[in-house]
Amino acid sequence: MKKNYSLIILSDNGSFVKEMTLSRERLLWAGLILLAFSLILAVLCYDVFLKKRAYPEIGQLEKALSEQTEEIDAQQNKIKNFKNHIGRLKKELQQLNQFEEKIKMIAGIGKTQDSDSHLVGIGGSIPVEYGPDAGGGSDDPLPAVK
Questions:
Q1: What is the total count of domains within the chain?
Q2: Which of 1, 22, 61, 128 is the most buried (most CB within 10 A)?
């Protein structure tokens, strides 16, 4: 004959009554499972305790990591702001170039045939030699280019 255990739950006002019946075998299994989970939890807590005692610098490393993460975030924000500033400067430069073209058009300074004419002070015209040594003789109408 199986022995059963009954658990009766009563409310404060007496209107709610609940009864649970468990066999001895099920109660034993529930107790063993509860014991196993308790042992596993105790072993894990003990392991964490040993790790914290063996490596006390973990807290310092975690703090340093969080500070470095904050610094990286701040630098990324600065880079993003700098990128936006450069974009605004490029836009302003483009508007300035368009304004310059309008002014040139109004002043009648159009573009010359030489594409390098806007480079002031760089290079210059090709040197020309005149005279009998120039390679073309004295009756050559065009001077020689070296």
A1: 2
A2: 22
Query: What pLDDT is attached to residue 22?
Result: 85
Tokens of 51: 């790790």
Containing structural domain, residue 29: 1-54
Q: What pLDDT, on a 0 to 100 scale, did the predictor assign at position 11? A: 80
Please say if the pLDDT value at position 34 is more than 90: yes
Task: Retrieve residue 38's tokens.
Answer: 């308790």
Same domain, 91 and 75: yes
Instruction: Write the burial class of residue 27 (CB in 10 Å: 0-12 exposed, 13-18 middle, 19+ buried).
Output: middle
DSSP state of 111: -
Amino acid in position 81: N
Task: Dump pLDDT digits (tens) for 7-21.
Answer: 888 888 777 788 888
17 and 61 within one domain: no
The answer to whether residues 143 and 128 touch, using CB atoms and an 8 Å cutoff, is: yes
Asked, for residue 96, whether it belongs to a domain, the answer is: yes
